[in-house]
Structures are given as structure tokens and as C-alpha cells.
Amino acid sequence: xxxIATLLTCxxxxxxxxxxxxxxxxxxxxxxxxxxxxxxxxxxxxxxxFYSLLVLEDMRLDQDGDGVLTEAEEKFLSGFDAQWVEGxxxxxxxxxxxxxxxxxxxxxxxxxxxDARIVTTHLRSVEGTPVPASDLSIKAFDESFYTAYEVTRPxxxxxxxxxxxxxxxxxxxxxxxxxxxFLRTLDADYDLEENDIPLVGEKFATEIRLSCPNT
Length: 215
Hints:
This protein has four helices and twelve strands; from the N terminus they run H-E-E-H-H-E-E-E-E-E-E-E-E-E-H-E. The chain is an alpha+beta fold. A hairpin with a 4-residue loop joins strand 1 and strand 2.
């Protein structure tokens, strides 16, 4: 998270951009059918320790503080992050060319803890016509960058066909330089709440490319 800390430091004079962030380690499982179409995506979110502590305390879970939830507590926690408002994209964008692939809301939510961190999973189905997974671009990001996603957990494919997964990580130094240059153009009393706030989340997102043979 070194580069995220650097970003926060560069933004300290500007309160809106200096909000504390939620840090999430992300994993993705792509489910494809025998025709090479993408049918589902299972998403894993591993929350940072501080945010996990806040959630557990707020929900009065793990009262013994051992970082391990009982089966009943896991059941109670499951779905806490799956109550999405209408229009929320789940901080996941899948594109085929310029077309954004529509996904369902979260299905089969589950939650547990690992090393005092909350880890959740949910399944999303591809809606509409079948989508050939021949050249898809996938990014996990919050465009406001209030939540920072890093694809550090496994990215896999489940299904009867062999697929290729490639990843392209952002040029963090270049993006930070652009952000710092933008901030230097602003007056110290510039009110970001009343003006356009730069949406930088996608600039710091890892791109996953999925290619499966279409049969």
C-alpha cells in the first residue's frame, strides 16, 4: 500500500481527497460454459484490519477478540456488504470493447474472517445475451477512490475450456505525478465539494484480460 499512502500524503491539503480509505484485497473467479461464454463472476473482498475491526465492533461480533467467528456469527455477518443501492455497479466493470457487460446484483453472499480481517464473497451473473469471453477487460475500482482495490488474491477461471488470463498493472508513479500536478494548480482554499472532484479510481486499477476459445 506504499503508493496509496503517498497519494493520501499528496492530497492532505484538500479535505475531500484526504478522507480515510477502505483497503480491499480482491480476487476474481470467472465461470465460463462449454461454449466459452462468461456466465458468472465470483468476487472476493478481503477488508483491511482497521475497517474489519470497525464492522465487527459495530455488529457486536467476535466478542472474545480472537479474530475467529462462530458459525452463527458468520451467518449473521454474511451479506453485510451486499445491500447495494440501485445503480451501484459493485465496483466491478467488465467491458467487451467499449460495451459494458451488465451484471446482476450480489448472489450467494458469504463472510468469514482471516487473520482478523473480514473476507467476503459474492456471485454475480452475466445478464442478457451470452457474452463470449474471447477478449474481455475487467477492472475492480471505486471511481471516487474512497475504497482502494488491489487484485492481490487469486484470479482464476472455472469451466470446461482453457482460458488465458493476463493482467496489466497501472503506472502508479505516472498517475501520482499527474494527480500532484493537478493539485498544485489549485488554490489552498479551493472547495472540492462545490466543484468537480477528479474521479481517479480507474486510473489506479489493475486491468485483467480474459480470453477463452469460443466453440
